[in-house]
Amino acid sequence: xxxxxxxxxxxxxxxxxxxxxxxxxxxxxxxxxxxxxxxxxxxxxxxxxxxxxxxxxxxxxxxxxxxxxxxxxxxxxxxxxxxxxxxxxxxxxxxxxxxxxxxxxxxxxxxxx
Amino acid sequence: xxxxxxxxxxxxxxxxxxxxxxxxxxxxxxxxxxxxxxxxxxxxxxxxxxxxxxxxxxxxxxxxxxxxxxxxxxxxxxxxxxxxxxxxxxxxxxxxxxxxxxxxxxxxxxxxxxx
Lengths: 113, 115
Description:
The complex is a heterodimer of chains A (113) and B (115).
Chain A: E1 4-7, E2 10-13, E3 19-25, E4 31-38, E5 42-51, E6 54-57, E7 65-70, E8 73-78, E9 87-94, E10 103-104, E11 108-112
Parallel strand pairs in A: 2-11
Antiparallel strand pairs in A: 1-3, 3-8, 4-5, 4-9, 5-6, 7-8, 9-10, 9-11
Chain B: E1 4-6, E2 11-14, E3 19-25, E4 33-38, E5 45-50, E6 54-58, E7 61-66, E8 71-76, E9 85-92, E10 103-105, E11 109-114
Parallel strand pairs in B: 2-11
Antiparallel strand pairs in B: 1-3, 3-8, 4-5, 4-9, 6-7, 7-8, 9-10, 9-11
């Protein structure tokens, strides 16, 4: 089984709808991250969490919110989806060291019409 | 100026040749650097990390770091068609006191190895 899973893998929704993307991990890592990837822009950090009680905004947090329900679960919500949030979303986890590898989930392709 | 910059390519290299991928970064206090490979439609996977000036070799891959020039590169020797992918450079800009890892990614270089 995959260490980092994301659901759903694909989602098409309409403008104004609330959407939740979920991430679960079995690696036992404390740190979890949400990124979005757009063509030509690389990966950009939305939110990150160092543990269940510590959540931080990344560089593009506007329009998004997160919830860390447990060490293993980190959810990303779009309260009112808009078309420019159409992107590929990745969850990642890492250990607590600054040199620790980040392990990525398979991604969720979100389309907002 | 972007914090991490890469040539987006595409970079085309014949099979068996050396592929050279470059990355520059703007934060002088950055301490850790990573190269990820991403196949089309897949998630990024780490192939190399480097923390000290100089070269680090792992199989056909060599990462090179020059902190004075704020430059990190990845060399792929004996390039294979399976190396065709997008390569992402990532730099940790997190506060060292927390041991934080807040990665900033470049836009990626698309590499094609021609048989």
